[in-house]
Structures
1.
Amino acid sequence: MTAGESLPISGIILAGGIGSRFWPLSRSQYPKQVLRLLGSESMIQSTIERLLPRIPLEHMIVVTNAAQADVIGLELRRKCWENIRLILEPEGRNTAPAVGLAAALLGEENADGLLAVFPADHFIRDQASLLAALDLGARWAKAGYLVTFGIPPHRPETGYGYIKQGEPLDAGGSGFRAERFIEKPDLARAKDFLTEGGYYWNSGIFLFRRDLLLEAISRYLPELSQGLSRLKEDASREALAEIYREFPNISLDHGIMERADNVAVVPVEMGWNDVGT
């Protein structure tokens, strides 16, 4: 990749949770993604706004569940974002089926195109650092890595998962192999991570080639892969409802990222906070 070149990216925005920790502000029919917690825009609007300099509206997909279609659709229409594709899950089955569904329904015209995954409930203060990190991540994703973005920890946080960095991918330290993922630690272990260094908070933001994601799903989540193949033949509402209930209820982290041997972590300091925690 030449200096200054930006590889095209499609964005998958996950907006299917109800935000039980925000109850009673957030409920199943008024989910956390439409709350205005940090300003005049809803969380989903803020998520999309910060990506627009890098990802055009026509290359964005919002995945939510059918019960929230109206309220999420209203948030998009309020910004005149009718170009964003809305994919509806018949029921919540966690992030691996949601991302797999979006990847499967994109079509085959750009089989090795880059897909980035963004939860709709994050606060990111430094937009410029996020966009620069996406450019770095796109470089490693194009080279064949499943990329996750790691946040340098500032405190011994017990509410986030961690990623331990492995060997560097280049001399500049722009990316590392992900040595392992660690579940939310207790306080003593979190303090050890901070002292030792080389550990990052797992942001839940991912970037990969579409073909490599689908290959990983086929390898590590064969039931999901088989169902997605069936949906390519028939993606009607009835077929989707029947097939979707058979999908495993598993996150992208547990289902793919923790198992694959081609995972890279790109460190980024961007004023990140998982508001849901």
2.
Amino acid sequence: MSLLLSDYDYPLPRSLIATHPLPDRAGSRMMVLHRHSRRIEHRLFAEFPAFLIPGDLAVLNDTKVIPARAFSDDGRIEFLFLEPTGANCWICMANPGRKLPLGAAVSIGGVSGVVQQILPTGERLIQFEGRVDLERVGEISIPPYLGRPAEPADAERYQTIFARHPGAVAAPTAGLHFTPEILARVPHTFVTLHVGAGTFRPVQAEWITDHLMHSERFEISAPAAQAIRGATRLVAIGTTTVRVLESCAAAHGEILPKVGATDIFIHPPYQFRAVHALLTNFHLPKSTLLMLVSAFAGRDFVFEAYAEAIRERYRVFSYGDCMLILP
């Protein structure tokens, strides 16, 4: 059992980081892992529907990325609007945080606010005097490892075609591969999990069990819960969907309609209760997402697959290629 952070590190050539999306959403390569036989195939995402069998249900995350990145009116502080907690009150990341102590005043988009609280994780709870119009003053916050500023095309491409419910800071990237045509060929339903700042926060504890996992808001509707309970196999599209399904299965023994939040941290030797197959992208070294995938497919098999992906020059991370993990 691998519980040391160093067990989830791997050498990654920076040249493999996909800094821009492909022209065709469905044009990505897809590495297919068969867990029981430990067999690896090299396919294309366009073939994804062919791997489903009768009784399968794909479960996708329909959160919508908001333009959460904004700057103070004086340009001195960068903010990431993470989560509203009340009327005109937000939890925000602030950089540099030293310029925003408790009680400090700030103005964003002409709206004044005051720091009410500094959370243990460093985020600021800010009460604004009115609504900050993020659609006007904000921009999509693309991942820092892309090494470039956001571009106009990111507003569309760093968003799934089925994004419906605003609230995410980052995209559920496994869903970025789907086109309307491919989605129409796949039996599916949607859950919602608003991807939060933990997507960007590195694990710093030497033992991964000491890591404080972020909490994210989610919702499972009654129709979605019914469809999920009626499926033979659940194919989770992305790690965010896994967190929703496994949180509910762990709490109730089955998937029920629910609105709540989850801070579930899935890592080896976690025993899955709901998810049977997983479509996911290739994840950062030492990340909680890589730990989740290692719990699902086995750390050794996952690292064998990652080594092969590097040899085969797969594109990695948010705009990169994907991996389908089957029983």
3.
Amino acid sequence: MLYLALLCVAVSAAFVFMFLLEIAPGKEPVLAQRLADLQNTERAAPSVLQRRRRQVQSERLKSILQAFGEAVEERSAATGAIRQRLIQAGFPNPSAVAFYLAARAGLPAVLGGGAFLLLPTFGKSWLFTLLTSIYCGAMGYVLPSLYLGQRIRGRQKEMQRALPDALDLLVVSVEAGLGLNQALVRVSEEIYRISPVLSEQLALVNLEIRAGTPREEALRNLADRTGLDDISSLVGMLIQTDRFGTSVAQALRVHADTMRTKRRQRAEEAAAKTTIKLIFPLVFCVFPAMFVVILGPAIIEILHALKAFG
């Protein structure tokens, strides 16, 4: 038995050693590794002709959509409001209005027509096909607007969270001796890690001022681009301070305190809403499970008792 145990230990050690050699990274020859890298590169990177062909197809599709959107834009009367919403959503390109209108006009036709043509092939009735086509067309018309509104709200929420910190940095920069323009540049550089959207908007204000736009107009453009009430109040305060010649640092400090108070109040409001929001998970998820666990055995005993009486 002793020899058998020693033999088993030796065989186990040999298997462990072979397993370690198998999983250990081996050193391939330099030439073989270089050839493997070249083959992977050739597989991963498309040829210049393929890339050019894809680029041409993409540009052709964009030109078709833009032409269609421009045709729709000529008949639309609310392009100004659409343009402002697209800028607030982060689409400052002048052709964004044409693409948006093309999407709102083309998606209902594509989704509704596709449903109308495909559903009969699956054996669906004409009434179901008609109703589904109408629903898909309505969703195709509403989806671009929903996506745009969701993107605007996301950007505004991000800027709203980062605005008190940006104001604190702005107060520190102005009190350190920097001018308002240089302080905006400094804050846009420092706030980028917290909110890239707010950093971009503050940098655009400085670029407009350097391009020759008056500061008041550049600040008003900031309020229009963001569509946020807190930034609109900040812009109004800065314009009034610049117009009447009062202390910018003191006004910014008071406004920063107000923004911090608003942020704390929003947090308290969100905490107060959690009790209301917990009602639905409790009623639909927790309470049924508790009723099954607590009342289940009692109901089973009652049923057995009734069967015994029967």
